[in-house]
Specification:
This protein is of the alpha+beta class. The chain contains 8 helices and 6 strands.
Amino acid sequence: MDFITKKLDFSNQTIKEMKLNSKKFYNTIKKRRSVRNFKTQNIDFEIIKNSVLAAGTAPNGANLQPWHFVIIKNKTIKKQIRIAAEIEEADFYDNKAPKEWLEALKPLGTDKNKLFLEEAPYLIAIFEKKFSLKNRKKVKNYYVKESVGIATGILITCLHLSGLAMLTHTPSPMNFLNQILKRPSNEKPFVLLVIGKPKNHCKVPLFAENKKSFSKITSVF
């Protein structure tokens, strides 16, 4: 394995600047909310492209980059995804979901109807790649879920900083995404991001404002 010596491109910030930037970022990202009501207005594709490129910089096992992003703006395909997702959601709400989970979902007002899958201008289906093929040989990927999870977090953050809203949608199972989007069997759907501008007066549950305090989520030694 060859290595290169390279001066990393880190800005030489003062402690004061570092603290200020971290506080600015926190004050921005804490405004992120999951929404289910989207405007149909178009979004410049360059924003979506840059956000996916940002996601592709995520740390990952052995730099194997075990992800694939499918960007969907085609109305026909979005409708196919909605129909397939609602079939799985109906089964979930009617047969699979434990009573406790349904009670937890009540404040959100969610049900098996997923209009947002057609309303939103963009969907991004994120796939985790269990292995890759190189020269017709199977190459195992490592720390796949961890890597894809980090990449998804960066993608969500970039979209939010760009002024867009989103929803992380995870109907179970999601195998229909492989069929509709023609993805190979070595890829497994991780999450379906629904992306756009929120409708005016978009409803957000009050409890979404209640994030746990630093002391509740942290231990310091």
